[in-house]
Amino acid sequence: MLPTGLIKKVKDSPEAGQSSGNELSKGKREKIIQNIAIAASFTSEPVKDTLEFWMQEIGIFHSIEFAPYNQIFQQLLDKNSITSQNQQGVNLILIRFEDWYQDDETFKHSVEEFLLAMQGATQGSKTPYLVCICPVSPSALGDINRVQLYRDMETWLVSELNHINGVYVVTYEELNRTYPVADYYDPYGEEEGKIPYTPSFFCALGTMLARKIHALKSLPYKVIVLDCDNTLWSGVCGEDGSTGVKISPPYQALQKFIIAQQEAGKLICLCSKNVEADVFAVFEQHPDMLLKTDRVVNWRINWKTKSENLKSLAAELQLGLDSFIFIDDNPVECGEVKANCPQVLTLQLPKECEQIPQFIQHIWAFDQIQVTKEDQKRTELYQQNVQRQRLHQKSLTFTDFLTKLGLEIEISQMKPEDLPRVSQLTQRTNQFNFTTIRRSEVEIQQLCDSGMLECRVVRVKDRFGDYGLVGLMLFSSNDNDDVLSVDTFLLSCRVLGRGVEHRVVSYLGKTARDKGLSKVNLLYQQTQKNKPALDFLESISEKLKLDECNQEKYNQEDRDLRMDNVNTVIATIGSNPKPLKVGNECVTPKNNTVELFQFSSTALTRLTFNPNQVETETPSPQDLQQNNSQQIETTNTSDLRDSSEGIIWERVAKELYTPELILQEILYRQQRQRPELEIGFVAPRTSVEKAIASLFAEVLKIDRVGINDNFFELGGNSLSATHLISRLRDAFKLELSLNLLFEFPTVTGLAESFQVLQTTTQHISSSIADTEDEYDEGVL
C-alpha cells in the first residue's frame, strides 16, 4: 500500500541553487556574480565606470564585458558570443539608429533584421535583455524626413520588443526625462573613436541602465504607507481645517506620483496621528486634493505609535513588513519606525517642499520593470476583500459564508498572456508557496516549451468580483517512477482557507490518474514565511493517511551520505523538476528543512474541503494574520533587507540625482595617487600648463600631474586619449588631432605646441582679414 503522508524528511538543505532571477530579493544576499554583457552599435566602453559605480553602491556583485565594436547582430546570432553564453545576469543592447543608416530602405531592413535576431536570441536564453535606444547626432536631427523615419521605426520596434518575453526597452525619451543632458554629443569623439557621447551622457546612460538592472534583480515593494500632515499637504488638518491646509505644486507632484504607483500595482495606505474625520475631510473637501480615498486600501489614523500601526496593517493585509515603504516628513516618527520596524523602507521627505518631486523620482525602490493586468487591479482586489471580511462577520457559520460567497474556481493551461503574471507569482508569493523557486518569464516559457514541465494556472471569482490569476502549478510526469512530481505549487494568500487549495491538490490527483500514474510527489522547502504551506500538507496528510506504519521518515544526520552525492544534488536543485534523490532517498542541499510528501493519486482525487474543519485543515485569513504577526516579531534581523538601504536611497535622491553630480562622485571615488615614474614631479607653472595638467588629472583620475609626465605612462590609452583631446579642443578652442598627443604626450610638450598653433591660427586669421580688407577696397 502506498504511503499517503510524509515519507522522507531531510535536514540541512538550502534554497541556494534553486533557479532564481532575483538574487537581490529581500533577505540575505548571496555573492552571486551578475554578468553584464554589453553590445552596442557605437563605442560604449565609457559607460563602464558608471555601471561599476552603481553596482558597487547597491551591492550587486558583478562582472562587465563588452562585445567588439558594432557587433550587435553577430552577438545575437552567434551561440558562442558573450551575450549567448551569459547564463547569470543581464544582456545590454545599445543601439543608435544613425549607425545603421545608409538609405531609408536599408535602414528599415536593418531594424527588421534586428527584431528577428532578438526573437531568435531570446528563445534559447533565460537571461533578460535590456535594449536601449540612444539619441542620434544633432546633425541627423536636421533632416526632417529622416527624423520622422527614426520615430516611426522606433515606435514599431518598441511595440514589437515589448511582446518578446525577457526583453525590456529603454527609450531616449525616458532616459532624457529622468536624467537630462543638454550637451550630450561629442563630435570629436565620434570622428576619432566612434565615441559619440560626452562623459555626462555616458553617466546618464549608465545610471539608467543600473536602475533597470536593479529593478530586474529585485523584488518590488508592495505597499506605500503615507503620513498625512506635512506629507500629503502642508499644514495640520486638525488645526487648519479641511480647506485650510495647503496643497502646493510639490505636494501635488507627490500625490500624482503616488497615483501612478497605485496604478502600477502598489497598495496605498495611510498612517497618521490624527482624528480620522479630520483627515478624510481633506480628501473629500479640499479642491486641490488629487489623491482620493478610492485609491486607499487601508489606514491607521489614531494616536498609537506608527510602528505599531504598520505592524497592524501588515497583519491585516497579510503581507510582510519588508514589502512596505513608509513616507513621513517628521524625523522623530521616521526614527521610531526605523528602530521598531527595521524591515520597512522608511523615507523622510526633504525639509524644503520644493525638493519633493526630485526626491521621489530618484528613489530607486519605487522602480518596477513591468506592470501586469493584476497589478492594475490590485487595489480593487483588496477593497473587494474588505467586503468579503464584512460578509464573513455577518455570517452565522463559515459554511454559510462560503455559500453566500459563491466561489468559482477555474484551473486551466497557461496562455501566452498569462506568462508575466505567472512569473510574478513565483517572485512574490511567500506564505503559501511550497518550494519558493523564483523564475523569470523566459525560464518558465523554456521549461514548458521543452516539455520538462507542464503548467496550470488557477483563477478564482465570487459574488464580489474576480480575484484574477491567483495560483500556479508546475509539474512533470515520469512513467518509469509512476509518479507526478510537483515542482511548484503556490497560491495567493487572498484565496486561502476557502477550499481552493484542496481543489488544486485534487486536480493534481486526477491529472496523475489520467496519465496512469499512481503517485503524486509534493516537495516542501522551508523558508521563514511559508509555514502555512507545511500546515496544509500535514493536515491533508493526516486526513488521507491510511496506515501509520507505511509512513517512512528519514533524517540526513542518521545516514552517511557521500559528499559527491550531496554536491550532485546541489548542482541540480531548481533546474530538475523532479524531487531529487540519492539512491532511494530524497535529499537537497543544506541549511533549510526539505520534506517530501507522497500521496496516492486516487486518494487525492477524493480529497474534499470541509468548512467545519477549516481551523485544523487549512490556514484561514486570521491564521495568516497571526502567522504574519509572529514573523514580524521573531524574524532575525540578520536575514532582513539591509537596514542601510533606506539611507542609500535617500542619499541617491538628495545627492546623486543628476549626471553631473553622479559623475563628480565617480571621479572623486576613482581618484588615485600619481604613480611612481622615472622622471620626478615638476608642478605646472603657467596658466596653460595648469589647465592642461588639470585635464590630464581629470581624464586619468589621478591627484596630480607634472609638466614632464607622459600621458601614456600615467595609464592613458586610446579611449582616454580621445576623451582628453576632446576636452582640450573645448577648453582651448583649437583644432587638435589624436596624433598630436602621441607626438607630444606631456603637459609641457602640448603647451608649447598650443602656442605654435595659436600663433599660426592668429597669423592665418590676420592674413584672411587683410585679404578681405583689400578685397573690400578693390570693390569700392
Automatic annotation (TrEMBL):
Molecular function via GO: phosphopantetheine binding
UniProt xrefs under Pfam families: PP-binding (PF00550)
GO biological process: amino acid activation for nonribosomal peptide biosynthetic process; secondary metabolite biosynthetic process
Gene Ontology CC, one term: cytoplasm
Span of domain Carrier: 683-758
Comp. bias intervals (Polar residues): 613-638
Residues covered by region (Disordered): 613-639
Keyword check for Phosphoprotein: yes
Gene3D superfamilies: 3.40.630.30, alpha/beta hydrolase (3.40.50.1820), HAD superfamily/HAD-like (3.40.50.1000), SGNH hydrolase (3.40.50.1110)
Key words, A-Z: Phosphopantetheine, Phosphoprotein
Essential cofactor(s): pantetheine 4'-phosphate
Protein name (record): Carrier domain-containing protein
